[in-house]
Amino acid sequence: MKIVFANSAWVSAAERLILRGGGWHSVRLRVRYGLFIHPQAGPVLVDTGYTPEATTGQGRGRMLRLYGAVLRPELNAAEQVQPVLERFGLAPGDVRTVVVTHFHADHISGLPLFPHARFIASDAAWARVKARTPRQN
């Protein structure tokens, strides 16, 4: 089994928002996702990282545009999910399973790239997403 952790983007935030006792200076954080190539299950993604759909996509709503304006993600083109898959001779259509850890844009923005995948997520988290309005999400 091969295991790869890729960095789809960087975001900056005040250190104190991440570390107890941290300062107000900005720290650069990696936005990561995982790819597991399993001998029987095939390629399995854990999240999708940030993708251009979240940062510049045409269908972005007002709240997603605001989210991007606040966090200002800097995409890492070399480690977007499609180029990483290509390094292993794979395409998005080959991914049959995506594990969604939670429903933030930096974890799910690439889900539409996987039309044949089964998505695995917490039932409680999915119920919360469905019960909220797009603005609340």
What can you tell me about this protein's structure?
- With 137 residues, this protein is of the alpha/beta class.
- It has a single domain, classed as Metallo-beta-lactamase, Chain A (4-Layer Sandwich), CATH 3.60.15.10.
- Helices cover 25% and strands 28% of the residues.
- The chain contains five helices and six strands, in the order βββααβαβαβα.
- A six-stranded mixed β-sheet has the order 4-1-2-3-5-6, covered by helices on one side.
- The longest helix has 10 residues, at 62-71.
- The termini are far apart.
- The relative contact order is 0.19.
- The mean pLDDT is 92.
Q: Average pLDDT, to the nearest integer?
A: 92
The arrangement of helices and strands along the chain is EEEHHEHEHEH
Percent range for β-strand residues: 25-35%
Radius of gyration: 16 Å
Q: Total number of β-strand segments?
A: 6
Largest sheet: 6 strands, mixed
Q: What is the percent of helical residues?
A: 10-25%
Strand order of the largest sheet: 4-1-2-3-5-6
The CATH topology name reads: Metallo-beta-lactamase, Chain A
| CATH secondary-structure class | Alpha Beta
Number of helices: 5
Describe the global form: globular
Low-confidence stretches: none
CATH architecture annotation = 4-Layer Sandwich
* Corresponding CATH superfamily: Ribonuclease Z/Hydroxyacylglutathione hydrolase-like
The total number of structural domains is 1
Calculate the terminal CA-CA distance, rounded to whole Å: 35 Å
What structural category characterises the helix and strand content? alpha/beta
